[in-house]
Amino acid sequence: MELVKTGKTKDVYKLPDGNYLLKFKDTVTGHPSGESDPGGNVVIGSVAGVGSGALKMSVYYFELLKKHQIPTHYVSADLAKNEMIVQPAAAFGKGLEFVMRYKAAGSFVRRFGLYCTEGEALPHIFEATLKDDGRDDPPATVDILVALGLLTSAQYSEIHDQTIQVAGLIREDLKNRGLELIDIKVEFGMVNGKIALIDEISAGNMRVYKDGNKLDYLALSGLI
Q: pTM for this one?
């Protein structure tokens, strides 16, 4: 295997057959203050079991999306080794992330706290952000994304609709377990010429509450 990238939560290896292997790590992301946050840009610590939980959740949700004919890059996984095999994907620019928000929390409140409060219900807000740790992942409108050549308007619309669908399926699954999805971050790329969900779908990508309290990574993984 050829090591391609050492990431915050995963290491990426290229396999001889052209697919890629993602090795999940026990790292937790957040903010320099030490607050854990699925949208955080720095590693704030390591917790045993986080990588295993992230992989198990990802496999569960990738299989759920497969049942609904939603394209993803997922191929297979080895839970014992914390490894997942995925198809090669081309990123949009240097990477874009998409967020579906159901309540105000985290970075949304930090940016728009003048007009909202923590936990306030939102009308299902969709956001696109640039993967740029140095600039704190700036949000971008469709006009900006098109002007910079990162997406076409048609691609933006397709990703918008797929994000709503993916988030809705996961939200419903969590609701059936007595859990509330506050927000979720997903990533898309081009796989075999088509837009597909890539990266992972885990506790590190979403903010979930139980009985009004935020669940940490391991607690959420254990419930799923």
A: 0.91
